[in-house]
Design goal:
The protein is an alpha/beta fold. It is built from 3 helices and 9 strands; from the N terminus they run ββββαβαβββαβ.
Amino acid sequence: MNVRSTVKAIILHEGKVLLNRCRDANNGEYFSLPGGGQEQFETMAEALHRECLEETGYSVEMVRFAALMEEICLDPFIREHYLQYAHKMLHIFVCRLTTLQRVEPTETDDLQISIDWVPVEEVPSINLLPKEVRENFSRLIAEDTPQFLGSAYLEHNHG
């Protein structure tokens, strides 16, 4: 069985959330939470710190666990050529910056075109993927109890 463990960060600062702006042929332009795959023998905290630094240039720390979600991609091409991305468990954490100083990102996602600070109140109206994060965003940042956002079958993967 090949299920990829991933970490995703809801990075909040002064009423805004830091998001990756992405673009691909199937989803158009959209936003996603910074984060990515956990490496073997790496803790989730270590993976989250590394992924956010690589993608955004910001150093972050976990505040709390916010949600768990499962994604299963139905795209035959992804299943054949990128099996490690076809079935993912997303561990979503609320995070804070450890410093306001930003370094140059070293390893952005292939689909990532920028990083943007988006006002929290605008999140319900933007194309944030997965949609389950967008639909539950207010609860995820306001409630201390972690949420299970369910399992989603995707026609096409996203960043």
